[in-house]
Amino acid sequence: MKKAVVERLKEKHNKEWFEETGPEFTIQISMLKDVAVLTIDTSGAGLHKRGYREAGGEAPLKETLAAALVLLSFWDADRLLIDPMCGSGTIPIEAAMIARHIAPGLQRGFASEKWPVIDEDYWSESRLAARDVIIPVHKLQLFGYDIDAKSIEVCKSNATIAGVEDVILFERKDIRDLWIDKQYGIVISNPPYGVRMSDFKDINEIYIAINKAFRKKWGWSLYILTADELFPSYFKRARPDRVRKLYNGNIKVNYYQYYGDRPTENDMPDQPNSTEGDGSA
Length: 281
Ligand SMILES: C[S@@+](CC[C@H](N)C(=O)[O-])C[C@H]1O[C@@H](n2cnc3c(N)ncnc32)[C@H](O)[C@@H]1O
Description:
Helix content is about 30%, strand content about 20%. The protein is built from 7 helices and 9 strands; from the N terminus they run H-E-E-H-E-H-H-E-H-E-E-H-E-H-E-E. The strands form 2 sheets. The chain has a 7-stranded mixed sheet with strand order 5-4-3-6-7-9-8, covered by helices on one side. The longest helix has 18 residues, at about 195-215. The chain is elongated, with a radius of gyration of 23 Å. The termini are far apart. The structure holds S-adenosylmethionine.
């Protein structure tokens, strides 16, 4: 393909040789039967790379998938959201960015920024316009927990780069110690999915902990992304209202959605700043 492009350039510019200097233009070709479609990649690194996740955790979700999980849920900025196995914090960070209207590409560069055909001013004006629409929401109820202390450090650093560290509380916590004393909250999480026999005991304990945390809770919604098709048979509280088939990278996964109840205005408490309770709920 490169040769074909060079041949056309030679014809057009009446030149025999082209230096390979200057910015990169990635051309992709896709063919179906006898139709070829040529595209030029304006982005460079995949669009899921927002630029805030310098350090990964254990099996981090793509940022785009985490954002989709939030958008497919009933969460909005007035409701409490917990990811009790948050890894590198992608789900709460994406929720905070959505609530604050932070454009997902604001922190990153794009391959086409170096192309002379696009005036630099467009980029700076677009970035200014995107900064202008950010809304300074300070009272979100977003919580990310993980059993792994190092992951929590990673979450805090990622949230700082994303500019949302002030609205998310990240804490080291085992899901077996999760106690929820608020009503009408939303849990969105992707638990570890084990392939080794030794993992199964841990996963079973995680499922027991999810059941326990949800016992006697009204209105809570649960959204679980997992490749484990047995999850619904372990979560005994309800049947999923909807199961969406998605891909996490190239792993086929299901997004189990348990809607819970919608809160009425009277049900919405004042904005709390912790999910820790006195155990009396
Ligand atoms: C698949 S990863 C979650 C990835 C995360 N969604 C992200 O985007 O980075 C599962 C996480 O569950 C955590 N985990 C495992 N057992 C746990 C437990 N008992 N309590 C809390 N977290 C646990 C692991 O440390 C790991 O970070």
